[in-house]
Design a protein that fits this description.
By secondary structure, the chain is an alpha+beta fold. The chain has nine helices and eleven strands. The longest helix is centred in the first third of the chain and has 19 residues.
Length: about 425
C-alpha cells in the first residue's frame, strides 16, 4: 500500500508489530474518503461543519490557533523507558500515526482482514467516521528534561508553577513528562487517537492521567458565538483569534531570541483542572452571579455596557470581579490564548457533580502570561468562592512538523539541534 500524499510506502502489518508490542498500530479507516481542510491561522469557521481534515503540517502545531473543536481528550504521559533511542523512535512512530489519523487514514492493514493470529492494526472504533477536524498537539513537561541528558535543553520559560492561594492539587492529576491534546468534533475520534497513541507507546510511555472535555469554553474564530461555561456565562470574549497574526506572534508563539532555539515557533501550555461548586453556584442570586463575573448573563456585556464586545470599563465593576482582575489592563498587559473545555465526571460520592473547567492556556512565556494573571486572580477573585484548582501541569509545545520527513521533537532530539 502506498501513501498517495507522500509517495512513501505505508508500513505493513508485520512491520508495525514492533510498535510497542505485537500489532500496536492505529488508524481511522474512513469510508468514502476525507474532505481535506488546509490549516491556516485564518481558517474559515465553516470548516467546523465539513467533518474534514486539518492539515497536520505547518510552522506551528495544529490545535492551538486552529478553530476550536467541540470535544477534547487530553492525556499526560510518564516516560517508562530509559533508552533515548527507544523514546525517539516512539516520537517518530507517534508522528506518523498522528499524521495519518488527522487525515482520516488507516494505519497498516486496518481493524480486520489481517493475520487472525495477531491483534488488528486498528482498534476499529473510528471506522466509517470522518476526520472531524482532529488535531493532535504534543508537549514536553519539566520532568522530561531530567531524562536522556536533556537538562541543558530545558527552556528557562518552562518553570515549575508556584503554589497559588487556594490550590488543592491532586498529584495523581498533575504533571507529566509528555502530553497529547486531541481535539475533534466527534468525541469518538478524539478518544480513538489517544487510545492508539498509548498502544504505540506501550513499554516506552504510560498514561499518567487524562481528561475528557466537551462544550468548548473559548473560541479562536472571529464572529463565532462565544461559548458558555457551566456557570452559564459567556467565556473567553476577549480571546486571541486565529486570524490575529500580530497578537499570536506577540503573545503565543516563541520567537527567535526568546531563549532555547529548539522552541522557536512553539508555545507554552498551562493545563489546570478547575472544580466548580455547581450546587453552591445554583443557589446564588442572579445579581451576585453577575457581580462575580462583571458581565450580565444574557448578553455577556460588561457592567454598564450594552453588547458583549463593547470595551469594558473596569472601574465600573466590583474590585473582585473576575473580568476586571483577568483583564490585561489589570496585569501589565499579560495576555494568553485560552482553549478550555467543560467536563463532568459523574458525582463525588456526596451527590454533588464532579464538574468544572479544564483550562488550557497557550502563551509565549508563562512567566509573563499565566503566572501573573493567576496570582492576581487567586488573591482577590470573587469566583474563588465557587471554584478550586485541583490539577495542574505545564508543557513546552515544540514547533510544528514541517513536512513528511519531519517528526515531533526533532528540534530537541536530533543531533543537529
Amino acid at each position: 500500500m502506498t501513501d498517495t500524499e507522500t509517495g512513501a510506502k505505508t508500513p505493513s502489518r508485520r512491520a508495525l508489530i514492533g510498535w510497542g508490542g505485537a500489532g500496536l498500530a492505529l488508524g481511522a479507516a474512513v469510508a468514502g474518503g476525507a474532505v481535506a481542510v488546509t490549516r491556516t491561522d485564518d481558517m474559515d469557521p465553516a470548516a467546523a461543519d465539513t467533518g474534514g481534515a486539518v492539515d497536520f503540517h505547518g510552522a506551528h502545531q495544529a490545535g492551538i490557533a486552529t478553530p476550536v473543536q467541540d470535544r477534547l481528550h487530553f492525556a499526560a504521559f510518564d516516560v517508562t523507558t530509559a533508552s533515548r533511542a527507544e523514546f525517539v523512535q516512539m516520537l517518530k512512530d507517534w508522528t506518523e500515526a498522528a499524521r495519518r489519523m488527522t487525515a482520516g487514514k488507516a494505519i497498516g492493514e486496518g481493524a480486520y482482514g489481517g493475520l487472525a493470529e495477531a491483534p488488528p492494526d486498528d482498534t476499529g472504533e473510528a471506522l466509517g467516521l470522518k476526520p472531524s477536524r482532529l488535531t493532535l498537539t504534543i508537549g514536553f513537561g519539566p520532568s522530561l528534561f531530567d531524562k536522556f541528558g536533556l537538562k541543558d535543553k530545558r527552556p528557562e520559560a518552562l518553570v515549575d508553577l508556584p503554589q497559588f492561594p487556594g490550590d488543592n492539587l491532586d498529584k495523581a492529576r498533575s504533571g507529566g513528562d509528555l502530553c497529547i491534546q486531541a481535539c475533534a468534533d466527534d468525541p469518538q475520534v478524539a478518544v480513538h487517537a489517544i487510545r492508539n497513541l498509548a498502544r504505540i507507546g506501550f513499554g516506552k510511555a504510560a498514561i499518567r492521567w487524562s481528561q475528557l472535555g466537551f462544550g468548548k469554553t473559548s473560541s479562536t474564530t472571529p464572529g463565532a458565538q462565544t461559548p458558555r461555561n457551566l456557570f452559564g456565562f459567556k467565556d473567553g470574549t476577549r480571546n486571541i483569534a486565529g486570524t490575529e497574526t500580530d497578537r499570536l506572534k506577540k503573545f503565543v508563539w516563541v520567537g527567535e531570541g526568546d531563549g532555547t532555539d529548539w522552541m522557536t515557533g512553539g508555545s507554552y501550555l498551562v493545563a489546570r483542572r478547575i472544580r466548580m461548586n455547581i450546587e453552591t453556584w445554583d443557589r446564588t442570586s442572579l445579581a451576585e452571579q453577575e457581580d462575580v463575573f462583571g458581565r450580565d448573563k444574557r448578553e455577556g456585556a460588561a457592567v454598564g455596557k450594552a453588547k458583549e464586545h463593547d470595551e469594558p470599563f473596569l472601574k465600573a465593576m466590583k474590585p473582585t470581579a473576575h473580568v476586571r482582575l483577568a483583564h490585561p489592563d489589570s496585569n501589565n498587559g499579560a495576555t494568553i490564548l485560552r482553549r478550555g473545555y467543560s467536563f463532568t465526571d459523574g458525582t463525588d460520592g456526596l451527590g454533588r457533580l464532579e464538574a468544572g473547567l479544564f483550562f488550557l492556556a497557550y502563551q509565549r512565556d508563562v512567566r509573563k502570561g499565566f503566572i501573573p494573571v493567576q496570582r492576581n486572580l487567586s488573591r482577590m477573585d470573587a469566583l474563588n468562592e465557587y471554584t478550586q484548582h485541583v490539577g495542574s501541569a505545564i508543557f513546552a509545545i515544540p514547533p510544528g512538523v514541517k513536512d513528511a520527513g519531519d517528526w515531533w521533537g526533532r528540534t530537541l532530539f536530533s543531533k543537529e539541534a
